[in-house]
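Exercise: predict the fold of this chain.
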Amino acid sequence: MPVLMMLLDMLLNAVDTKSQYQELMHSMPTSQ
């Protein structure tokens, strides 16, 4: 099922992007 693999790849990419975004927010100073 290539469609299933495509959806799985999209899901993994979304999780990876979310984790990178959270790391970026944690590394940036929160005090403004």
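Check your answer against the key: The helical segments are 2-27.
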